[in-house]
Please model this.
Amino acid sequence: MVSAYEVDAELMTTELQASADTNEVFETSIASSPQVETDKVGVTTRLAAQIGQLAASEIPDEAYDRAAVAVLDTLGVILAGSVTKTAERQRAAIVPYAGVGKASVFGTELRLNVLDATFLNTTAGHVLDYDDSNPRLHGHPSLAILPASLALAEETGSGIAEILKAYVIGFEVASRVGDAVGLFQYKYGWHPSATIGIFATIASAGFLLRLDETALANAFGLGASFASGIKANFGSDGKSIGLGHATRSAVQAVLLARQGVTAAPEAFEHKHGYLNIFNQGSGHYDLEALLGDWHGPLALLHNGLQQKRYPCCYSCLAPLDGVQAIAEQTGLQTQDIAAVDVRVHPIRHPHINRPNPRNGLEAKFSLQYCVARHLEAGFLSIDDFEDEAVTRPDTWDLMNRVHFGVHDLPEVATATVAITTTSGDLHEVTIPAALGSTDDRSLTLALLRSKFLDCSTRALDTSQAEALYQALVGLRGWNDLSPLRLAGTVAKGADNER
Model:
């Protein structure tokens, strides 16, 4: 078997060579396509027009239902993240200088301005890596959309129906920009949740603030300058802060554009624009995927929302389902295990190959830790990623028996798991996709409820958490924001004073 270190060395050599080759041809690539032909109408203008048509169209009820589930799941993880040390430090840094406003900082009684509330709620929701994902974005859509939408709704008085429609619009933009640029950006080292998610935030926020097409196009152009985020910060506070910076910057872009601030009409397609700089030339993006026919099924309605069962990197989830399947079939105990062999798609391997995690955040991106701890406990909880939990000697002993490599199967979502027992028996399973990752493998309402209450009771009293859950389950029946305000009325351990 090829070792994890040999795999990473080979992948790194390949990536470095690809980087060198890319840099060598970068100027040539851009020079050969100094500006993409877009019928002389800028990409941002055409994107704004597509969004206008979507906003004016009839949205299926099923899309609103899925958006409501996203609100439920996302508010839960924001509440859980609000009591972490990372969230407390960020509030300590920002709140003394923040202007007051109407927007809730969930898990506290704070009401701040839209920009700072957006940042704090986004980072709180992302710090545990428990928020949902989207394969077309190659990142996390709901936290790119909802913190800004909820803050703006509280500030402007928008209703639940508008928030849900804003979510559908933002999700569509995240998916379509992801189709155009996401895979290259993800492989190259950008963090698409931020570098692409910023445009989802702009789209949803622009809808809530009723920007016209010209202003929305300018907001997208400003967002092209504001976009940032790198995968090197995975496993640190920098990952969640990067997404928070993106959502805050997106709202800033929308507010500026609403006041008439302009951006270059060709901010996307210019030879020095977003597409060519982030994607290293015209061979690495597909404008048709972004600007083509928007009349097909909504992205949200086709395997769009991938919700997490465990609070760790999404790439770990299919292997964990495999571990659980074997454990349930065999009843194996940890002392019976001689070796565990896990294989994932090559694109997923590098950022979860951390055989020696130094803290809880790094452990979320350690396949070795996640598998070993799941074999011990039969589950993974938020508590398993506290710093002190990562140092358990028994867990490390089991981690040393976990061997991690890549498979040659075509599907990115697929993982294989093989467990060899001390008596020589071999148990194998192939998991096509993680539970929660497809429409036919979605998390059950019971699992969603359990996850939500586990998350929310870390910040709220049990009665408040249950009341919030019941309100969010019936979210579409509400006109005002009363259910959301329950998330900021009671706090256990979160700071509540300026």
